[in-house]
Design the sequence.
């Protein structure tokens, strides 16, 4: 049986092919994958290790923090701070930039991460994950500040996530396609199992939190009502809906078999432009999705070109199969120019929750 490549082997191979990365970069990715393995181990123990349940406090964004949010954050920090490859880190769980402790050397990369995504799903044993994004730190910076992290997603050196599901997988892009690795627990290595993942351009599956329907903008209502009208509506085909409420799991499904995910702008809380965070959720996932042939948009701009204004900035996210993302972006454009044609089905006006307004 031919041996399949490990993640480390793959990274070194890519480095040789494109010579865009340094040995330090390979070592950094080794630390990131170790952090993911440590978190996978802890999550796998679950209630046996007493790691379920809520932590004492809230995170910097006023969200309920689970014990595992705190532990996973600590694992990410401790596993990545010592190697000498990072100039600084930012995390969903920390208000400010996390500096590298004085006893360790500093490097030229910046790491932004969501240590545990979908953590509200932990206690019900649904897939959760860790998301990461690596940027370059500008030359000559000795103490990285928030400003150094505010680079558009197009500047990412690499991005990926680990998903802790029935199997643990790490999915990665270094800017030349998307590769999936499955954790072999016996030998403790991520093994290349899904080379060159591609998202089909077409889909008939979408994922959205429909309980927010009354807060959506008209172009989103238009798109969803057209999907729900199915075969007899303007799309001429039936759609299926999915909602896992774990961003990593939604993106993973789309990378495996196509589909569309939306957490669009809504007017539920006008202070928030969207739900997901640009630097450590939207940007890394947008990079992966684009590298797999899909598209990622806020509805009005390509996510990777959005200029970040703050470490914890939120953005609307519409990503997945390219034809669907482009259609929704077109609906936003038509609405903004006042030339949209909302779909109104008499059937839906009387019978469905999804009423056009
Ligand atoms: Mn998250
Ligand atoms: Mn999180």
Sequence:
């Amino acid at each position: 049986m031919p041996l399949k490549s490990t993640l480390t082997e793959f990274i070194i191979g890519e480095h040789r092919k494109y010579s865009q990365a340094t040995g330090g970069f390979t070592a950094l990715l080794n630390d990131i994958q170790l952090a993911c393995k440590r978190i996978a181990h802890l999550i796998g123990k679950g209630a046996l290790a007493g790691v379920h349940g809520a932590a004492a406090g809230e995170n910097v964004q006023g969200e309920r923090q689970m014990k595992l949010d705190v532990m996973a954050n600590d694992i990410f920090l401790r596993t990545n701070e010592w190697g000498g490859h990072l100039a600084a880190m930012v995390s969903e769980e920390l208000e400010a930039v996390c500096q590298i402790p004085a006893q360790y050397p500093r490097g030229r990369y910046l790491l932004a991460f969501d240590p545990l995504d979908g953590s509200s799903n932990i206690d019900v044993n649904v897939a959760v994950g860790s998301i990461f994004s690596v940027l370059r730190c500008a030359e000559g910076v000795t103490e990285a500040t928030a400003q150094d992290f505010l680079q558009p997603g197009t500047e990412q050196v690499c991005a990926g996530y680990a998903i802790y599901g029935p199997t643990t997988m790490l999915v990665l892009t270094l800017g030349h396609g998307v590769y999936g690795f499955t954790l072999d627990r016996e030998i403790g290595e991520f093994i290349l199992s899904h080379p060159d993942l591609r998202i089909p351009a077409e889909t008939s599956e979408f994922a959205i939190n429909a309980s927010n329907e009354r807060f959506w903008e008209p172009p989103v209502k238009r798109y969803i009502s057209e999907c729900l009208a199915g075969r007899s509506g303007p799309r001429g085909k039936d759609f299926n809906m999915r909602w896992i409420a774990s961003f990593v799991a939604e993106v993973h499904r789309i990378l495996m078999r196509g589909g569309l995910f939306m957490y669009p702008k809504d007017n539920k809380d006008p202070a928030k432009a969207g739900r997901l965070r640009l630097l450590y959720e939207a940007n890394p996932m947008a990079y992966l999705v684009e590298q797999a042939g899909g598209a990622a948009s806020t509805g009005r701009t390509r996510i990777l070109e959005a200029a970040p204004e703050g470490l914890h900035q939120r953005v609307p996210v519409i990503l997945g199969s390219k034809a669907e993302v482009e259609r929704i972006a077109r609906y936003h454009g038509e609405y903004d120019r006042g030339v949209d044609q909302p779909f109104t089905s008499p059937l839906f006006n009387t019978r469905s929750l999804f009423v056009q307004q």
Q: What stands out?
A: The chain is about 30% helix and 25% strand. The chain has two domains: 7-194, 205-348.
